[in-house]
Sequence to fold (385 residues):
Amino acid sequence: MKRIIFLALTVISMAVNAQTNFNEGKTFKEILSMASEQGKPVFIDCYTSWCGPCKQMAREVFPKKEAGDYFNAKFVCWKVDMEKGEGPDIAKKYDVAAYPTFLILNADGSLKATQVGSAPLDKFIKAIDGLLNEQKGLPWYQQQFKEGNRDKTFLDEYIQLIDSKYLRNEKKRVVETLFEGKTAAQIVADEENFRLFLGTDFTPADQLFLDIYRLRSVVLSNHGEKSTLALDDIWRRGARECMEFEGREFKNFDADKFKAYKKKMAEFSVPNIEHIEDVTLVAVANYHKDYVTLAKYLEKDIKTGGKVWTDARDLVPLLQGMADNCAQDKKMRKLIVREAESRIKILNKQNAENPDARQVTVGGVKMTAAQFFINNFQKVIDKLK
Fold:
């Protein structure tokens, strides 16, 4: 009997050792200590509970024996939910903004390399090997920049590397350094600098953004309407700062902060402030599942011919959710159907005006994007009628 138990425990032990050992239950400080003691770098799997590719890696890649043989031998491994425990601090410290992100750290906690995205095991190991063996990795570029290297080829490579790693905060720091001594007018006048500005996460909280936005008419003249619309959209996205989140969970909406934000938009003559307000309050109502407020905006959307939800991608899931939660209310049910029918008319008109619109393949069937949304709105109608 003891022999059977011993054999069973041996099999279990072998199964555990065969997969990647992420040292669950350890703190970040303990992981760094282990790395120092073992003379190994640290490998961190930065994931979230809602990330599909993260789950795929956890399910299909790291449990394999080949993964365990590779990662356990080379690293002290750890994994952390970026929205819980030490996760938010890790995300802030290492500028993690996409998932999954895999960090390779030196034993002192300094960043050695970053890998973003899922991949099959063989390609993933090849990518990690490449990071370990590269002569000019992220730390090299960081040091060169710190020492004053401003060669154009170097900067192009560095910014391209930052973009590939989704290191948004680092890119902003780099771009701010490059723009030191330049006026907003000089940035707007230079095609390359202005494109770099638009590709960086500047917000209405940044003085540089405000200075450039004051030159909106110059931007329109020099770079066209698409660029001015991109500037305007930064105001829309900036309104999200009036909402408080814990991870992805909505916690609160600061109405006073939003009131001040609207005043600031008015001072800068931002167009379509009413639409930005609608989009923001719709989002808040959706988070609160405030169907009375959402119904008010559905009425407004019907009357204005689709001016509240300018993108059908945002409206489809909302109507689907309302169909699931409000079907017992006859008045609400009719309103949802009216909205869906109104959208179908708009989309049918778009189809008629653009017969050569690019098609997508959905479930093996080719259709325009407009037809795809028509089908989804029709499903909502069929569910409620």
User: Anything to note?
Assistant: Strands lie at 42-47, 76-81, 101-105, 111-116, 243-246, 249-253, 359-362, 365-368. The two ends are 66 Å apart (CA to CA).
